[in-house]
Amino acid sequence: MLYGWMFPYARTIFFSFVAEQVTPGSTKDRENNSHKSLGELKVSIKIRLLHLFVVLNISLGLLYTRSCLTWAEAPETPRIIFVSFRGETSDIYAMNPDGGEESNLTRHALSDRDPVWAPNGEQILFSSDRHDQVFDLFVMDADGTNIRKVFKNTAVRRNPTWSPDGHMIAYWRENDQAIYTATINGTEEKHLALTGEDGGYPKWSPNGIEIAYIFSRKPPVGTNEIRIINLQTNTQRTFLPEEPLLMYSMAWSPDGDEIAFCWINLDVWKNPELLIGGFFNKAAIYTARPNGGLPQKVVDDSELSLRSLTWVPHGDHLVYGKGGQLFKINLNTLTETQLTHDGRNLRPDWFDPAALSVESNAELLTTLWGKLKQK
C-alpha cells in the first residue's frame, strides 16, 4: 500500500536534514557554510519542513481513507430487486428468486423507482424524487447503503439501463422526451434519440452494440413501437415493422438472440369495445428475434395488467408484473410462479453472481466507446 512507505520516507527526510545541519564535514565545507546567510538557511529549513508536512498529511489521509472506506460487494446468491408501493410512496426491495427474504433497501419518505443491477452486482442504479422532488438518477451499493446522485445538475431522468461493462448508462430525459447516454459518473451526457411523450424505457443489448427503446406516436395514430439503435453506425430500425405497433415493456435475452415484450392482442385492437377497462389489461408477452421472425406467445392474454418484464440471467425464466404482483415463468415448461403477495410491485431486475459476463464484453465496449467519442 502507498501509505506503507510514507512514514519511513518522512522520517528519512527529517533525519537527513538534521544530519546535514550538524555533520562537521571538511574544513573547506565549514568555511563555505560559514558564508551562508541566515536568510538562505531559513529558506532551506522552510522548504524541508514544508516537504515533511505534505508527506505526513498524505500519509494520515491514506490511513483515514483505509480505516473509513468500505467497498461495495455483490450478493453471493441470486437476488431480484423491484419497486414496491406499500404506502403513499414507493421503495426499492430485494428478494430471493423464490420470493423469500424480502428486504427494503431504501426506506425513504419520497419515492424510489426504476432499479437496475450493475453488471457486476455491486451497485444499483435507480430514479428518485428525493432531491428537490424531481425524479433524477441515483446509485447505491447492493445493500442499499452509500446512496449518491449521479448528475450534478438536476433534470427529470428515468428508466435507466447499464452498458454491459458498467461504464456507461442510458436513460430517458423528460425535457425533450429523448434517450440519452452518459458515464456512470454523470459526465459526457449525449442525446441519442427522440421517443415521444409516452416512450423511453431503453434496454442495452448484451453485446453493447445496440439499445432498444419504446417510440410513442401521438394520436390519432397513438401506437407504440420498439426501435433499435446501432451505436456503431448510428442507425435505427423498427422491431417487427410489419406487425401492429402496440408494444411496450421489453427485455433482451442474456445472449441477445431474442427480445421479450408486451404486446396488445390484435383481436382486441380490431374490436374497440374490448378495450373497456384499458388496453394494457388485454396484453400478452411474446418473444421474437431482434431482426424479425414469427413472435412466440409466452404468457397468454390476461385480464390482469402485464407490466415491466426482465429476462433471468441464465435464460430459462422471465420475471414480470401482473395484476400488481411479480411472477416468473419457466420458458421450457411455461410453469408460472407468483413471487410477491404484498403491496403493488413492478420493475423487477435479477442478478445472479454465477452469470457474470462483464469480462467477456470489456474489450468490445472499450473499442465501441472509443469510436463513439470520436463522432
How would you describe this protein?
- The protein has 375 residues and is α+β, with helices and mostly antiparallel strands.
- The protein has two domains: 3-68; 79-370, Neuraminidase, CATH 2.120.10.
- It has five helices and 24 strands.
- It has helices spanning 3-22, 27-34, 38-68, 266-270, 358-374; strands at 79-85, 90-95, 103-104, 112-117, 123-128, 136-141, 148-149, 157-162, 168-173, 178-183, 190-194, 200-204, 210-216, 224-230, 235-238, 247-252, 259-264, 283-288, 296-299, 306-311, 317-322, 325-330, 336-338, 344-351.
- Strands 3-2-1-24 form a four-stranded antiparallel beta sheet, with no helix packed on it. Strands 4-5-6-7 form a four-stranded antiparallel beta sheet, with no helix packed on it.
- Helix 1 packs antiparallel against helix 3 (38-68).
- The chain is globular.
- The model is unreliable at 1-15, 17-23, 52-70, 358-367 and 369-375 (pLDDT under 50).
Low-confidence stretches: 1-15, 17-23, 52-70, 358-367, 369-375
Largest sheet geometry? 4 strands, antiparallel
Identify the quaternary structure here.
single chain
N-to-C SSE string, H for helix and E for strand: HHHEEEEEEEEEEEEEEEEEHEEEEEEEH
| Strand order in space, largest sheet | 3-2-1-24
Q: Please count the beta strands (DSSP E, at least 2 residues each).
A: 24
Approximately how much beta-strand content do the residues carry? Answer: 35-45%
